[in-house]
Amino acid sequence: MTNAYNNHDEMNQGQRRRSSIALFMASLLVAAAPLSAQQPDRSGPPDLGPPPRLELPPIQQLALSNGLRVVLMEKHGVPLVQVNVLVMSGSAYDRRDKRGLASIATDMLDEGAGSRDALTLADEIEFLGAAIRTSSGAHTSTVSLHTPLSKFDTALPLLADIVLRPSFPEEELERKRKSQLTSLLQAHDEPNAIASAAFNVALYDDDHPYGGTGIGTEESIRSFSVAGLREYHSRYFVANNAAIIVVGDVTPSQVIPKLESAFGSWQSGSIPETSWPSARQVNRREVILVDKPGAAQSVIRIGRIGVDRHTDDYYAIQVMNTILGGSFTSRLNQNLREDKGYTYGAYSNFSFRHLPGPFMAGASVQTEVTDSALAEFFLEMNGVLDPVPEKEITGAKNYEAFGLPGQFQSVARIAGNLAEIVTYDLPTDYFNRYVDEILAVTQSQVRRAAREYVNPERVKVIVVGDRATIEAGIRALDLGPMTVLSVEEVLGAKPVMGQ
To answer: Which CA distances in Å does 82 have to 86, 228, 264, 301, 406?
Structure first.
């Protein structure tokens, strides 16, 4: 009975399975019928949907009892906190004979602070699973803390010691001095470093803050002293010349008392007034060839003085530059890399700062095609002066719009972006409105921005490469007067180490 029952049940199960399979196949045939009549369109990529709107949490403007500005964005969901202390001082504030002071002073902040020496401080930070970094630019210096929320209370006093109470030990200064001099020595063999220095000097006068390098010269680096570092710190690292940016899993009621305990005693000071000379715009095309005998590649920099961050043409320039050289699919990169194979990448960019920064187009190209690459650069720079097709403009605007959310994927990146709002006093809804502003750029605005700010007839052309191989080809292009320099004429004599 048992066997008969089992055999009968197995027969019924087999019939049910076959019936289910038949019904399933029939449903596939029914579903497939309309699909076979609708062939996919493979003639081009699918249409993009509308760019995603970036809706950031509110940017909260707060202050401590001493007036220190606090900018807070709550970012809940991941138990992390980013705190950036932003000080409004950088290489642009260095005296001409003390170039590099801001850089080395900021670099020295975490080499001993409070009662801790450099190694003890580093060990305590590492033990917490936190990270504290220092950096400086032309107009700002930053000390940043990235920490798990659970370690925030312990890490914050370490950050405060580094910002407020650095010890600037003599032995650490000597180590940093040797490191800076070594970097200067190595720069003599780095074509990109040579090209950057030559470009800055060509565009800006020697007394302009953008006319040198942030690292300084051998003479200035050797002149730095502990007393000088302390004087710099006391002059610029004051509460009324700083702001604190906080992003993470905290609320104002949680974080403000802790910041008050750590930074509430930070004193204000008398900030020195600084004035900078106006930069003279390039008024003709000139070529500067820096001889690097035996160089396998030529480094090209082409540019002129651009605009400051508050220009009304900011969004039009962004779209125009994306088309010219600001993306992988830009005209410069498609021409010199994809079509010609002259380089691994060609680009252009605008440096937006408090003062008009440079516009620059550049690439590292094979030595034997240096002249051909220069010709293609000017072909594309002249081409963008003509009306750009609407389809290309739409693509550039979409590139900018779709790429924006990726800049806000971590608390560290968000804090870095908020620094732009603080540094340039932008409206707090700046990033939420960015996509709309980009999408509103018109064809005529792109053309006007190109004609106003690219101007290939009035640029400095810097080429670092093997003069014996490339000079004749460059001269044949008849780009303008040429000056030939040695590496030492650009960077100065090589530092003598061991002194």
So the answer is: 13, 30, 19, 36, 18
